[in-house]
From TrEMBL:
<keyword id="KW-1133">Transmembrane helix</keyword>
<feature type="transmembrane region" description="Helical">
    <location>
        <begin position="12"/>
        <end position="32"/>
    </location>
</feature>
<keyword id="KW-0472">Membrane</keyword>
<dbReference type="GO" id="GO:0042910">
    <property type="term" value="F:xenobiotic transmembrane transporter activity"/>
</dbReference>
<feature type="transmembrane region" description="Helical">
    <location>
        <begin position="887"/>
        <end position="907"/>
    </location>
</feature>
<dbReference type="InterPro" id="IPR004763">
    <property type="entry name" value="CusA-like"/>
</dbReference>
<feature type="transmembrane region" description="Helical">
    <location>
        <begin position="526"/>
        <end position="544"/>
    </location>
</feature>
<feature type="region of interest" description="Disordered">
    <location>
        <begin position="1024"/>
        <end position="1050"/>
    </location>
</feature>
<dbReference type="InterPro" id="IPR027463">
    <property type="entry name" value="AcrB_DN_DC_subdom"/>
</dbReference>
<dbReference type="InterPro" id="IPR001036">
    <property type="entry name" value="Acrflvin-R"/>
</dbReference>
<keyword id="KW-1003">Cell membrane</keyword>
<keyword id="KW-0812">Transmembrane</keyword>
<comment type="similarity">
    <text>Belongs to the resistance-nodulation-cell division (RND) (TC 2.A.6) family.</text>
</comment>
<feature type="transmembrane region" description="Helical">
    <location>
        <begin position="337"/>
        <end position="356"/>
    </location>
</feature>
<dbReference type="GO" id="GO:0008324">
    <property type="term" value="F:monoatomic cation transmembrane transporter activity"/>
</dbReference>
<feature type="transmembrane region" description="Helical">
    <location>
        <begin position="437"/>
        <end position="458"/>
    </location>
</feature>
<feature type="transmembrane region" description="Helical">
    <location>
        <begin position="991"/>
        <end position="1014"/>
    </location>
</feature>
Length: 1050
């Protein structure tokens, strides 16, 4: 079947070339429509449920809101994990599902359970809401709306943001939400006067009821007049401050209006967060969140176009500044990938021209790269794989051109120097030389695809990162097979005339020298093998001593400085400290701009308090840095300088995508998340402080963040029910008075066109102390006023700031970021030290998560799947050669190939990581295939009657060019990736380093050590020790016709 396809390709080569052109054009369209991002989205399938609980403490939120919601979600299909955070007035529950769960179905299940549990929540708690369908890569664009002239207030800017900017950006396809923050949220305030209320004999409750009833509209059907249908309606909506002031509080002959007992004015809502920029003051910002599965590059481009349109509609002097644009990092990363692709293709073309001696033939081979990638693009669309650094950045074009090299080697060896009289003879010559290698090409593709099977078995975060790579590589290899059998024979027959010679003269000279040295190598095979075994043990030992990381840290070009403070800090003080920290950051010449987010926005997608500041810092390119040489050093300098100059701050430094992705995966933004589980908050705090003190002393510890559960001051009013009864005061009136004193009671809405603004009833401002609140007055049943102090007790207490739970258990987290040390060895030392120095009471336990959890899970999975894949490859070798002994001889190249990869990582100072593991996996396939090349040729010579000694000598010499060509193509195809320093290259370099060094080392070892191993494997037991090799001048040197099946095994 395969031979028939080769024959048809050569016979109809013009049509085949046209078909190739059509395929490449289709590939161009597929590439233009491919979703592009910087990194694969590794977020879990999760649904976040946010519930506001006004006035409740964290303990009350946990008990009355969070716990019932968690209980409702228990037992959901494919539920993986439940996480929750209870903060003052806010509950956030995150429901994490198995990766096989569809996110939309998951949201449907959560919504159904929420409808059931809503009745169990307190009546004053608004219905729970689902967070937007976004991911760790969802925050794609951050902008600031500011006044250049200073003529616009913070309230005016926020109003423009909410009603003119955000709705238009939210309408962009692919945008799921725009989260506004900062500025002042406009409200209409009705501020009462207790003395006037008393003088008119009114209560706060009466006034609240009057305002709530005063703004309404009603439909009264319709009337027909002169053939027309006319609607009848009543409109009593409040339109402005004057309407509010004229609301009747009490009717009768002497009506009392609002303006007689209260002041009506425009004010701002109670704020829970603030944003500042460049130490210059407050700003209003918007964060654009992308819909799950959307194309980040196209969505960001559409957002920027919409921002430009909105800018034209804003008043003069109001401008929108871009602070963070994810497409910058995406474009830089894509540029890195494209640069590697172009450089790799040029290197492959040059190597083939040098080794094969035919430029036309080399061009025909290189055309296999875009053809294979086109089929890979079709596969990416079919399987929903995004084009990113992992899926596209790790493809070695040397693997994709292996098949065409096999065919071209066979053609050159068979047709070199032959003379043809007719065109039909040339056609038949191409068919006869190319057809026999169709099966070896298929075998080579199967071997390479098999080595990627372990990646398809990865789960969790590591699976989301590396399964797309394996999928794309498998599709590309399938494309290489299709090109090799269907397109390449016809294309090369069209482009290349029959070769006049078998190759460059320098290869012939090299072969002669190798053939003279080979008998010595074979005779010393056991010494060489022992030396290589020692080298393998030493190199792997040294590599493992360096430790292991999950994935090297990718430099995104910008950083996030997270500042933690005491939980009791007020928003005004936090704002002051933010400005000081920004001033410190602006003193760094590397910093372009800063934007600080403290607390939470009104939408509350991120449930944090005033004690948390996320400061986005935009940096200049690294080559312009002067304060530090790399990101780790700059992070350490920033941390030390802010903590030393800004009092009461704890600083950690991360990056935007890294920070958000870590948080969504494990609920933590750190490299390592140490969680202590137990029931008592005081014990959790004590043990977390002890763990923090222990790990802070370890080498490689950068930032240590201990979650502060306690320390939130409260002023708590406890009513005396006997006094309430004696004075005739309803408890609801007391609580309304407290509410009106601080946040205000919502009594209506004012519509200004499409804009909506709340109307709130407030008491006059009081002192922010217990005494000030105690002096508030409540109306009694007989018209007198009594203070809160007389109705109960007001006490200053201290309670939890946060209650965190995971799978129904309370927990506290110690977060650690590392500097200059690998993840695996640090965690191993930390686990041993914590277990020894921090004993836990019965019922308490500690877990280790974050990036370490991903590394550990990947190692466990690979420890099972990699040996299984290697066993399958061994089985294929046994089937191919019909001998376990020969198969084991070829398979012995796998451990030898690891030597070069290990040395490469050691020389370049790199730790073992998952990308490096992928490189070792690919290296194993290449090593086996090179062994197949030589073994196939030697066995054919044996079948032709050659002695074992001569067969090994001739076979090794004959395969020299094939081995060197494919090794050079594979190694040099990865070389640009190994030395690249562009955006995202941190992930590619370990993989490429292993492949480049490994292939070079494996090729040398195969040419030196493997012929001796092969002789032992092919010899009969009685002749194993025979080393009577012919001398070079005794060897009959016939014409070099490379066995097609041995031309290249991969």
């Amino acid at each position: 079947m395969l031979s028939r396809l080769v024959a048809l390709s050569v016979q109809y080569r013009t049509g085949v070339a046209g078909g190739l052109l059509v395929l490449l054009v289709a590939g161009g369209f597929a590439a233009a429509r491919l979703p592009i991002d910087a990194m694969p989205d590794v977020s879990t399938v999760q649904v976040a449920v946010l519930t506001e609980a006004p006035g409740l403490s964290p303990i009350e939120v946990e008990r009355m809101v969070t716990a019932p919601i968690e209980l409702a979600f228990n037992g959901l299909p494919r539920l993986s994990e439940l996480r929750s955070v209870s903060r003052p007035g806010l509950s956030a529950v995150t429901v994490v599902f198995d990766d096989s769960m569809d996110v939309w179905f998951a949201r449907q299940l959560v919504s159904e359970r929420l409808r059931e549990v809503t009745a169990d929540l307190p009546a004053f708690v608004p219905p729970p809401q689902l967070a937007p369908v976004s991911t760790g890569l969802g925050e794609i664009y951050i902008f600031v709306v500011r006044s250049e002239t200073g003529d616009h207030s913070a309230m005016q800017l926020r109003t423009m943001l909410d009603w003119e900017v955000v709705p238009k950006i939210r309408a962009v396809p692919g945008v799921i939400e725009v989260n506004p923050m900062g500025g002042e949220l406009k409200q209409y305030h009705v501020v009462t006067s207790p003395s006037k209320l008393k003088s008119f004999g009114l209560t706060l409750s009466q006034m609240q009821n009057a305002l709530e009833r005063s703004s309404s509209s009603v439909g009264a059907g319709y009337v027909e007049r002169e053939g027309e249908n006319i609607l009848v309606r009543g409109n009593g909506r409040l339109l402005n401050e004057e309407d509010i002031a004229n609301v009747i509080v009490r009717g009768g002959s002497n009506p009392v209006l609002v303006k007689q007992i209260a002041d009506v004015k425009i004010g701002s809502a109670l704020r829970y967060g603030v944003t500042t920029r460049d130490a210059e003051g407050e700003v209003v910002t918007g964060t654009v969140m992308m819909l799950l599965g959307a194309n980040s590059r196209s969505v960001t481009a559409a957002v920027k176009d919409r921002v430009a349109e909105v800018q034209k509609t804003l008043p003069p002097g109001v401008v929108i500044d871009t602070i963070y644009d994810r497409s910058d990092f995406v474009n830089a990363t894509v540029g890195t990938v494209i640069k590697n692709i172009i450089e790799g293709a040029l290197v492959v073309l040059l190597v083939l021209a040098v080794f094969l001696g035919t430029v036309r033939g080399a061009i025909a081979v290189v055309l296999g790269i875009p053809a294979s990638m086109t089929i890979a693009l079709f596969g990416m669309h079919l399987f929903g794989v995004t084009g990113d650094l992992m899926s596209l950045g790790a493809i070695d074009f040397g693997f994709l051109v292996d098949g065409p090299i096999v065919v071209l080697e066979a053609i050159i060896a068979s047709l070199a120097g032959r003379h043809f009289r007719k065109k039909s003879e040339i056609t038949q010559g191409f068919i006869d030389s190319a057809a026999p290698v169709a099966r070896p090409v298929a075998f080579s593709v199967a071997i390479i695809m098999l080595v990627y099977i372990p990646l398809l078995a990865l789960q969790g975060v590591e699976g989301k990162m590396f399964r797309p790579m394996a999928t794309v590589m498998a599709c590309a290899l399938f494309g290489a097979l299709v090109y090799s059998v269907v397109f390449f024979p016809g294309v090369v027959a069209l482009l290349m005339p029959p070769p006049k010679n078998s190759g460059p003269r320098w290869l012939g000279v090299l072969r002669e020298k190798y053939e003279r040295l080979l008998p010595g190598f074979i005779s010393k095979r056991w010494v060489l093998l022992a030396a290589m075994s020692v080298a393998l043990v030493v190199s792997m030992y040294l590599l493992l001593q360096r430790g292991a990381d999950f994935v090297p840290r990718i430099q995104e070009g910008d950083i996030v400085v997270t500042i933690r403070r005491t939980p009791s800090i007020g928003l005004t003080e936090a704002r002051r400290l933010d400005l000081e920290a920004e001033k410190v950051l602006k003193s760094f010449p590397e910093v372009i701009t800063t934007l600080a987010f403290t607390g939470r926005a009104e939408l509350a997608f991120d449930p944090v308090g005033n004690d948390n500041t996320d400061m986005f810092v935009r940096l200049k390119p690294e080559e312009e840095w002067t304060s530090a040489h790399d990101l780790d050093e700059l992070s350490e300098v920033i941390k030390e300088r802010i903590e030393s100059q800004v009092a009461g701050t704890f600083v950690s430094v991360s990056q935007p995508i890294e920070d958000r992705t870590n948080e969504l995966i494990s609920g933590s933004r750190a490299d390592v998340a140490i969680q202590i589980f137990g029931a008592d908050l005081d014990t959790l705090v004590e043990k977390s402080n002890a763990v923090g003190d222990v790990v802070r002393k370890l080498q490689g510890t950068g930032d240590v963040r201990i979650e502060r559960l306690l320390g939130m001051p409260n002023i708590v009013f406890t009513p005396d029910r006997e006094r309430l009864a004696r004075y005739g005061v309803e408890l609801d009136d007391v609580f309304r008075t407290l509410e009106a004193a601080r946040v205000g009671a919502r009594v209506g809405v004012i519509y200004e066109g499409p804009k909506r603004f709340e109307v709130r009833l407030l008491s006059p401002p009081t002192e922010n102390t217990r005494k000030g609140l105690g002096d508030l007055f409540v109306e009694t049943s007989d018209g007198h006023q009594v203070s809160l102090d007389e109705l109960g007790s007001l006490e200053d207490t201290e309670g939890p700031a946060t209650v965190r739970r995971e799978n129904f258990m309370r927990t506290v987290r110690v977060e650690v970021n590392l500097r200059g040390r690998d993840l695996a060895s640090w965690v191993a030392e930390a686990q041993a030290t914590v277990q020894k120095e921090v004993p836990l009471p019965t019922g308490y336990n500690v877990t280790w998560g974050g990036q370490f959890e991903n590394l550990e899970r990947a190692q466990q999975r690979l420890a099972i799947v990699v040996p299984l894949a290697l066993l399958i490859i061994l089985g294929m070798l046994v089937m191919t050669f019909g001998s376990v002994r020969v198969a084991l001889g070829v398979f012995s190249l796998v451990p030898l190939a690891l030597i070069g990869g290990a040395i490469g990582l050691l020389v370049r100072g790199m730790n073992f990581s998952l990308p490096a593991a992928v490189g070792f996996i690919a290296l194993a396939g290449v090593a086996v295939l090179n062994g197949v090349v030589m073994t196939t040729d030697v066995k054919k010579l044996l079948d032709q009657g050659e002695s074992l000694d001569k067969a090994v000598l001739h076979g090794a010499a004959h395969t020299l060019r094939a081995v060197l060509t494919t090794a050079a193509v594979a190694a040099l195809g990865f070389f640009p990736m190994a030395i690249n320093t562009g955006a995202g290259s941190e992930v590619q370099r370990p993989l490429a380093t292993v492949v480049v060094f490994g292939i070079v080392g494996a090729t040398v070892l195969m040419l030196v050590v493997f012929p001796g191993i092969l002789k032992f494997a092919l010899s009969k037991p009685a002749t194993v020790e025979s080393d009577d090799l012919p001398q070079p001048d005794e060897v009959t040197d016939g014409p070099e016709v490379l066995n097609p099946s041995a031309a290249k095994g991969h």
